[in-house]
Amino acid sequence: MAAQALLRAASVVLLCWRAATAGTCFSDDFSSIDSGWISVDGDWKWSGGTVDDNVGNYGEGHVLYRDADYSDGYLEASVSVSSGQAGLLFRIADMPVAADYINNAGQMYYCGINLNWVRCGRMNDAWSEIWRYNTPIALGQFYDLGINMDGSDFTVFLDGAEIGSFSDSSYSSGGIGLRTYWGRGIYDSISYEAPGCAGSNSPFVYVDQEMSWTDAREYCRTHHHDLASIHSASENAEVA
């Protein structure tokens, strides 16, 4: 039987079915320094459950997770900007061993936020913007920035709400990382979940936010498989 994931929508507890095939899970709350992270430029600091990089009014910073090689799945980070922009690198096709790789034929996607927008693009020895969503971003406030990757189709989420999508077939898999550009970015957590992610003994994942039934169904279908429900006392016990 496929695994299930728990979702709360308004005052109704719903279940969504997760894909049966197990995939990769990854998460980091930055409570300690994971040796898998490598800084290729910038001044990254781990402190009090966050990771912080301040490159000031000029320059950029990048820290990458060395063991990641992900294709389809959902990547999300809790990120804030005090100035400039900050965001997520994903499907990094050529994990670097030296600094300044982005300006040295670095191949990857990037989605980030700044004061006025969320935008995503492709890097290949140069930056090419693919998609942009104009919206006010409060400086110093944490936002959950998420990207669902499904082949060449990408859906972007901000605080759990879908804000747009784009398509590009340049890179099919690769590493993940964090980026700041001409400013200061702070990250509170990061997670990646492949379809059927098998990282827990529990068949349920609790999503701590309220939404309408329609939004809940869309969330389940985007991140997992589809809505489901509890049909037995044993299933109910697993939720409890």
Automatic annotation (TrEMBL):
Domain of life: Eukaryota
Keyword Transmembrane helix: no
GO molecular function, a single term: hydrolase activity
UniProt-listed InterPro entries: AL/BT2_dom, C-type_lectin-like/link_sf, CTDL_fold
Keyword terms, alphabetized: Signal
Domain called 3-keto-alpha-glucoside-1,2-lyase/3-keto-2-hydroxy-glucal hydratase: residue spans: 35-182
Signal peptide region: 1-22
Official protein name in the record: 3-keto-alpha-glucoside-1,2-lyase/3-keto-2-hydroxy-glucal hydratase domain-containing protein
Organism annotation: Pelagomonas calceolata
